[in-house]
Amino acid sequence: MKFNSIAKLGGMVLLSALVLAGCGSKSSQSGSKKQEFTWQETSNLPTMDLSKATDQVSAETLNATNEGLLKMSTNAKVTPGVAKNYTVSKDGKTWTFNLRHSKWSDGTPVTAKDFVYSWQRTLAPKTASQYAYIFDHIKNATKVNAGKAPASSLGVKADGDYKLVVTLNRPQSYFKYLVANAEFFPQKQSAVKKYGSKYGTQSKYMVYNGPFKLTGWNGTNDSWTMVKNSNYWNKKNIKLDKMKIQVVKDPSTVLNQYNTDKLNAITLTGSQQVSHYKNNKDYKSYLNASTFYLEMNQKKDPVLRNANIRKALSLSIDRKQLTDKVLADGSVPARGLVAAKMAYRNGKDYADQAEVKSADSHNLTEAKKLWAKGLKETGKKSVALNLLADDTPAGKNTTEFLQSQLTKLPGLKITNQNLPFKTRLQRSQDGNFDLVISAWIADFPDPISFLSLFTSDNSYNNGEWKSAKYDTLVKNAEGKDALNAGKRWDDMVQAQKVLMNNQGIVPLYQQSTPKLINSKVKGIQFFPTAPEWDWSKVSIK
Question: Which range is the signal sequence, renumbered to this chain (predicted)?
Fold first, then answer.
């Protein structure tokens, strides 16, 4: 997820600051304490149309207001959602989900047909979903998405109202994780038809089947609210009455509110805040399965098609200085595309086995040699590039640092452009950039969640780096080697090495989120992968 994501996400991932308030608020008429708090985001909510969402803020909000067949849980596990149980055939190709009797927020039943419609809508060519690729293991999904087969041929069928049968064209051991993600949530066809082009653009143009309902979101505002959904099947275990989301970008404002007891939890930003509070009993640091990286537009800029130019850009960056001195929030230098401490085989971390040190190291002397060689090969004496990133504090600090690092290469001029997240995201998707700081949080705990991004035809490959060898390795991991865990792992290890040896992207850092959380707040669930946060078990002591 792009950071959102971070997406989804999948994200593009942004720093997400938690701001809690309302503890011990006035009693309700029943005499019980109101369970309310406020969560801070650093970016607006782009969309609630799950067929079109690509960012972390949308993923978090969709996860709170809607529910899929299964739910993500801690320690890379899944728990029942709309599906009370499921079975998998011996060949791994048929998944059967038995649905519970649950309801939409308007009181109508959630049925298997709502899942069939949702998946068909996401794959419809006219929807132009960037997440269509994640359905590719489902029978005929690729053909349906390309307009070469009817939606009815998709391998998902409703067997009555409460049984969903999914047929895959090849085994996919991590499919259980996919159906816990927002892209696989149900959608009510009558609501989509009723609201038309307005669907998902404001809170009133939606129906919900999750723990909360979204209210007060007009599509562009800096605050919105989620209230307990009285029609949610598990409402008796939802403690919160209401949670308010506020977009707050200034870290000093957030810290001041925390120190004056107006906010109960925040995300710390920058070295001064983290160093001052890292020994505080309320301090917590969460390492995300997320990687920030530099994409280079190899379609728009011929000079960036030169491998020596790309390698020179990478070698000129001191990642240790970036994480320790500039970000100073617990983030660590990236050792490739795939995040560390996410996927293991035989006790070995994928990030260790797939690392190409020359692609994530700092060596300015070697960088200048490769730069000179690249300039000669491209017939250039100087190069001017725009560096695009978000307008968040972390985004601005990172671009300023990268500008200072990259311009140590003779003849290179870097112009920074820090834009609102939604604008930056659109420009990335449109290919309207030279260099862009992108980020991804894994949708599920498997390396393929990262690796699939940079196949030649993936819609998230905004820089349009291409490698036939890379495509084949990813294809093998997803196809002929899917049931052989050892071969599949080797395919994925070699794929990242191809990407890094060619410097298809420039890995920067793996994000950690430092927080101060008041002890009154209980039950916040954090996942290293998307959707990252789950508020369904939160209560205020």
Answer: 1-21
pLDDT tens digits along 301-317: 999 999 999 999 999 99
Does the pLDDT at position 327 exceed 80?
A: yes
State the SS3 of 291-315: EEEEEECCCCCHHHHCHHHHHHHHH
Cβ-contact 267, 524 below 8 angstroms:
no
Task: For residues 134 and 380, give the distance between their C-alpha atoms in angstroms, rounded to a whole number.
Answer: 40
3-state secondary structure of 372: helix
Q: What is the mean pLDDT of residues 93-114?
A: 98
Distance CA 292, CA 274 (A): 20
CA dihedral defined by 433, 270, 13, 192, rounded to 10 degrees?
A: -100
SS (HEC) of 412-450: EEEEEEEECHHHHHHHHHHCCCCEEEEEEECCCCCCHHH
Q: Which domains does the chain have, with CATH numbers?
A: 36-243+518-540 (3.90.76.10), 288-512 (3.10.105.10)
Per DSSP, 394 falls in state: H
* Helix spans in 78-196 (H): 112-123, 141-145, 175-178, 189-195
Q: Is residue 289 within a helix (H) or strand (E), and if so which, with residue range? A: strand 283-296
pLDDT at 7 over 80: no
Joined tokens for residue 298: 């190899």
- How far is it, in rounded angstroms, from Cα 398 to Cα 388? 11
Instruction: Answer whether residue 77 shows pLDDT above 90.
Output: no
Single-letter code of the amino acid located at 216? G
d(CA 109, CA 209): 9
Q: How far apart are the C-alpha atoms of 425 and 45, rounded to whole Å?
A: 12
User: H or E element: which one contains 389?
Assistant: strand 383-390
- Give the pLDDT score at 245: 87
481 contacts 371 by C-beta, under 8 angstroms: no
What is the DSSP secondary-structure string of 204-254?
GG----SSEEEES--SS-SEEEEEE-TT-TTGGG---SEEEEEE---HHHH
Residues in Cβ contact with 206 at an 8 Å cutoff, skipping those fewer than 6 apart: 48, 65, 191, 195, 199, 200, 214
How high is the pLDDT of residue 357?
Answer: 97
**Spatial contact of 309 and 294, defined as CB atoms under 8 Å apart:** no
